[in-house]
Design goal:
single chain; alpha/beta; Rossmann fold; 6 strands; 43% helix
Length: 198
């Protein structure tokens, strides 16, 4: 997995995965040319592009202008857009606009129980349900202890799974495995087996 983090210069996500991440300044032409060229030129990798919210419109308009989805398809790549919603109406509106700009690719809204439920607001629920989605993901709320653990610099879900949670308190082990199982069970079988560009 290769990660492009557009949170320049901070690179919060890149800080968790320094070996596989590159922080880019997407406001610079050379940087977005490099990003798209790298993905199309090296389709054997999976890519994750972490887009800063302020760049959504710029990114997807460029993506559409260069027909990136068609180029990726020619390389045998499949694109899935995961849109992380917050609890505001503006977030739902941004999701709807991004869905339109992204074209005919898989679009998956991600709702996080820890930050509230936009569906509890009638106007938000109506707008959300009108968005064409491939599916949706709901991230369960985690306890403060679990959040503190997974946000630590030495924690990795891969290592946690490989060791079957050994070395962690039983209640945290159970909570994290339930969290992972909930997310895994929301996966669709047709989303495995091909490189994902976005």
């Amino acid at each position: 997995m290769r990660i492009f983090d557009t949170d320049f210069p901070n690179g919060v996500l890149a800080g968790y995965f320094p070996q596989s991440s590159r922080v880019i300044d997407f406001r610079k032409t050379a940087e977005h040319v490099m990003l798209f060229d790298t993905i199309i030129g090296e389709p054997q990798y999976d890519y994750l592009i972490d887009l800063d919210a302020s760049l959504l419109d710029r990114f997807f308009r460029l993506y559409r202008d260069i027909a990136f989805d068609a180029g990726a398809a020619e390389q045998g790549m499949r694109i899935t857009v995961y849109f992380l919603l917050d609890r505001t109406l503006s977030s739902v509106e941004a999701a709807a606009e991004t869905r339109q700009l992204a074209g005919k690719v898989a679009f998956v809204p991600v709702r996080n129980e820890a930050i509230g439920n936009i569906l509890a607001v009638p106007q938000g629920a109506k707008r959300y349900h009108a968005i064409e989605k491939s599916r949706e993901i709901l991230l369960p709320r985690l306890s403060v202890d679990a959040l503190n653990l997974i946000e630590g610099p030495d924690f990795s879900f891969g290592a946690f799974i490989a060791r079957n949670g050994e070395g962690y308190p039983l209640e945290l082990k159970v909570e994290l495995f339930q969290f992972l199982e909930t997310i895994y069970n929301q996966r669709r079988s047709d989303e495995s087996g091909m490189p994902v560009a976005l």
